[in-house]
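Sequence in, structure out. Go.
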Amino acid sequence: MKKRLLATAALAGSLSLVLAACGGSSSSPKPTGQGVLAGVCPATVVIQTDWYATPERAAAYQLVGPNGTVEAKKGAYVGPLGDTGVNVEVRLGGPFLGGQPVPAQMYQDTSITLGLVPTDEQIRAEAKLPLTGVFASLQTNPQVIMWDPATYHINSWKDVAASGAPILYSEGKPYMDYLVANGDVKKEQLDASYDGTPSRFVAEKGRVMQQGYVSNEPYRWEHDVKGWQKPTGSLLVSRSGYEIYPHQWSVRTGELDKLRPCLQKLVPMLQQAQIDYAANPEPTNQALLHISQAIPDGPPMTAAANTDSVKVQLADKIIANGPGNTLGNFDTARIDRVIAAVTPILKSQGQQVPDGLAAKDLVTNEFIDPAKGLKTQG
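Output:
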């Protein structure tokens, strides 16, 4: 595996993609939602995200489009879903969740229709708060470990362990336990004091490593972080074999049958939203920037960083097709591998995981339109 620097973004220039499904166009923005959902879906489809409004979560905001309303106190972005006759309310996560994970919020507030939940968190919640994933907006987890390439020469995960460098991360992330169990990180390297900022990384002059998103921090560290402003190296956690889907758009399992008529029509629109965003991201990127200005306590955001984020997501196949050249479907064998990897970790922490848990208990491709995917230009 070759060292991944910020030049990743340049790879996107070699990706000639017609990012459209069945007649879609990237020339101008248009409403994603077309067709009647009124009387079939809730009058307001509420989507609970797991963090602030960022390009990795843009498919949700694409559903509303660039002219939605920001409800800053509530932490929401609201507007009609095209001409479907229903509204969409996208709720920000992070501090707006009061410190609890999305599954707990979904069971506490049953007005939520769909929640964005990573595979490992869904496994953790399954015993008491069961969810069913119906759509995967991202194919690859953008989570990385970052380092200073002038300090550390890293070509593989084994090099990370050999470096002995302290690794700043947020406590409670199962992937870090996996990396330790897999020999990719030594336990004594762990430092769970990461506060979401570059302050320690800068103060230590790159002598520490830290978690981040490949589609966010590397660009920002190089271009915007005072005291640093130079490239970083990074490795995707997914390349260690930790294969979670970062955003499984999920419903409460007990409501699956009730929502089935809605999901049959809505899920293809979710697919189309990600396709439309990848094809023409700037209108929604501008909306993300507007939201960040109206709700100013989130991560710093610039128009240039948002543009770069989409390029990186495409280059690193974070936004990409799943099996059969379809965007948004689940590879059930992959889910089973995640269950096998995560279950021992969770049980060692005293978490309850149902015996015999399998992909069929966590996800379904029932509502996915197999014809919707990113199309390469011939």
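Check: Residues 1-30 have pLDDT under 50 and may be disordered. Residues 256-279 form the longest helix (24 residues).
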